[in-house]
Amino acid sequence: MLVEHGGKGARMADIAKETGISRQALYLHFKSRTDLLVATTLYTGDQLDVEGRLAPSRAATSGVDRLRLYIDFWGNFLPEIYGVGKALMMVQDTDEAAAAAWADRMDAMRDGCRAAIDALLADDNLADGWTRDKAIDAFWTMLLVPNWEALTIDCGWSKTDYIHHMQTIAERTFVRQS
Amino acid sequence: MLVEHGGKGARMADIAKETGISRQALYLHFKSRTDLLVATTLYTGDQLDVEGRLAPSRAATSGVDRLRLYIDFWGNFLPEIYGVGKALMMVQDTDEAAAAAWADRMDAMRDGCRAAIDALLADDNLADGWTRDKAIDAFWTMLLVPNWEALTIDCGWSKTDYIHHMQTIAERTFVRQS
DNA sequence: GTGTCAATTGACACAGTGTCAAGAAAGAAG
DNA sequence: CTTCTTTCTTGACACTGTGTCAATTGACAC
């Protein structure tokens, strides 16, 4: 339902109706709507074999490859978690727990960014003008959901467009050009 | 109030209290909270002399300068409209009119992006791999509020950090490196 | 037959937006 | 000094959606 309606159209009553149980029964299983959304996020992550998908970027032999492959992973992964992620983002402003849960997910994504930048550093291939931390911050920011939203939803980019151009941006930005 | 609380803490009752009139009197002047927020956005824009601030980037003699000066403008301008902008963004999901109003503001920002990319094209200085439209999309996305939020609020970057590094990213990404 | 567990129904509290009706304060005009 | 108009106030209420509570039902186990 979240995927279909872009994060909306999934009130507790809607979910109850769709699953064929009463609204109150939902509260017997999840202590709040946020709790349900978080559980859904985690479940979705499990279903999608994140570890397996991350394998290629982890196996990369150079920093440049790691950067490129991580973007490839993310560009394929993000659309699949977008629905529930969006729902979580939409209640961030009113719900502390939702904000924390989503921040945690984004923090996990940040680990990948850190690994990619560190791989560039190991090759002595990080472009001039970046400290390690600033580069990680910038790369992480580039991959955040609102950018994907703007490019694919507002601007109509395809998944391929997104991945390809993000790779271009990241390489030109972070890889020393010789 | 919006600036102080980062877009929150300004319910109709709060605003009424602060201004010393009744909550209902607010509805005599603004037909809805969104209407008030939009009016505030426009008023703020007027107060800040947008045209004057844009002058330097418009006067740029090269595409590279135009790109750099537009980011400079934006990096100084955005923090001043962030409060009310954030409030508008926060109700986007529930309020169609707010979404439209904010989209309109972002569209105005996009004009500046278009002008900068066109200036690069005029110099035959747009980096390989970009069509005009894709470059405008990408540059516009880079400047969107969530990126500024992530970098300054989440990552603790200063205004100078933001401007400087965004300039670096944009130049490496969009300017042909010779 | 009794206990337990999950579910149901229906009612209600709460926050915040927006609406409505009745009246009050204050100045302008005769 | 009255009368009209405009603006504001007070207080009540509707609506949406989340979350809570109490009483009840149905099913299965022992």
Structural summary, described in words:
Two copies of one chain form a homodimer. By secondary structure, the first copy, chain A, is mainly α. The first copy, chain A, has one domain (12-174): Tetracycline Repressor, domain 2. Chain A contains nine helices and no strands. Chain A has helices spanning 12-19, 23-29, 33-47, 50-58, 63-90, 96-122, 132-143, 145-154, 159-174. In chain A, α4 (50-58) runs antiparallel to α5 and α5 (63-90) packs across α9 (159-174). The first copy, chain A, is elongated and about 65 Å long. The structure holds a DNA duplex (30 and 30 nucleotides).
Global outline of chain A: elongated
Classified by CATH, the class of chain A is Mainly Alpha
Question: Do you know the CATH architecture of chain A?
Answer: Orthogonal Bundle
Task: Kindly give the count of domains of chain A.
Answer: 1
What is the helix content of chain A?
A: over 70%
- Indicate the multimeric state: homodimer
- At the fourth level of CATH, the homologous superfamily of chain A is Tetracycline Repressor, domain 2
What low-confidence regions of chain A span 5 or more consecutive residues with pLDDT below 50? none
Terminus-to-terminus distance of chain A:
49 Å
Helical run tally of chain A:
9
Number of strands of chain A: 0
- Secondary structure category of chain A: mainly alpha
- Average predicted confidence as pLDDT of chain A: 95
CATH overall fold name of chain A:
Tetracycline Repressor, domain 2
What integer value in Å does the Rg of chain A equal? 18 Å
- Tell me the strand percentage band of chain A: under 5%
